[in-house]
Amino acid sequence: MATIRVSLAGEDTDRSYDVACGRGILAGIGQRLAACGAARAVIITDEAVADLHARRAADSLAAAGIALELLTVPSGEPSKSVAVAAGLWDDFARLAVDRATHVVAVGGGVVGDLAGFVAATFARGLPLWHVATTLVAQVDSAIGGKTGINLAGGKNLVGAFWQPRGVIADIETLETLPEREFVSGLAEVVKYGMILDAAFFEWLEEHAAALAARQGDLLAAAVERSAALKAHVVERDEREITGLRAVLNYGHTFGHAYETAAGYGVLLHGEAVAIGMARAARLAAILDRLPEEVVGRQDRLLGRMGLPSEAPQGLAFAPDNLLAIMARDKKTVGGRLRFVLPSRIGQVELVPDVDPALVTQALLGS
Ligand code: GLY
User: Residue 197 domain-assigned?
Assistant: First the structure.
């Protein structure tokens, strides 16, 4: 098992925590909570993993003497809604959840973001744990404390920073992931290579086929490297203030627009991010910030992993609609479009004030 520390020691509080990566470690969740003095927990999970993984987490918590409730929400992005969050707040009130109750999110990015937001807001904050069972969650969404829900007008528009007490990334849980869900997570892995680590990008190129086939040791190495890169960024810019954490949004401004325009749940998050990274690289090339050759290299790696670099046939995306959604993005300042754009493999920059006509050109280009 590998342990990656997210160091968030402040002057008067230490909110540091570990991301544990390994095989079969889900069964140790009970001991981890017990070691933190937890006597009661609420598991929030979704229908897809309730029987598969949440039950094992529940058994582990019960074996450690922790009283628990299990709440299940429907699977998929539409659960990141005000209505589902309100339902959980009501459940928490009914169950007399108090500040000593630990919330354990068992699932992927949707469950983690939703449960994290409910944990951040109920009773002004409850201790939170992420048992990340998808690749997106293990390499990205469970690490770093971003929680939130969607509005019709945009992804993650309502949320809070709320760091977990710990993250469990059990590689075994990736074996049962549906193919589309697994492949979608590889987009976030490619993202780390593009934004921070050229050697990792080359390693991904070398092992693309084996990773897409979920070869165990390589997959564990990819999760560990991605989690370490994420931890490194979060430690230096926890609240996305200096611009460093903003690099993690590479592909996400375009991606969120595609995801929102398609209707939540139509494109998986990672699929939208893959399309978004392809558009962002193209925009960088249009702005003469990136050689065309690198645009093609990224497209090829995405393709070898089974990811799209174009919006799927049959879904119509009007550039004006995508631009309007991007204008509401959290990263937009004063209505001016800002993008995280690559300048070479392993390096990106925050580019302010991009001309919407050039964004349209990147949206239309193939
Ligand atoms: N997924 C982007 C971030 O955590 O900042």
Answer: no
What is the torsional sign of CA 58, 148, 268, 343?
negative
Q: Is the dihedral of CA 265, 151, 107, 216 positive or negative?
A: positive
What residue numbers bound the domain in which 243 lies? 203-363
Q: Which helix (H) or strand (E) holds 229?
A: helix 216-236
pTM above 0.85, yes or no: yes
Q: What are phi and psi of 43, to 5 degrees?
A: -90, 130
Please give the number of the atom of ligand 1 that sits closest to the Cα of 230.
4
Cα–ligand 1 centroid distance for 94 (angstroms)? 33
In the predicted structure, residue 9 carries a pLDDT above the cut 70: yes
The per-residue pLDDT for range 298-309, each reduced to its tens digit, is 999 999 999 999
Distances (CA, A) of 325 to 37, 55, 78: 44, 39, 18
Instruction: Say yes or no: 161 and 292 in one domain.
Output: no
Ligand 1 pocket at CB < 6 A: 140, 144, 146, 245, 248-249
Backbone torsions φ then ψ of 354, nearest 5 degrees: -80, 135
Q: What are phi and psi of 109, to 5 degrees?
A: -60, -35
Active site residues: 124, 146, 188, 230, 240, 245, 249, 252, 256, 269
The total domain count for the chain is 2
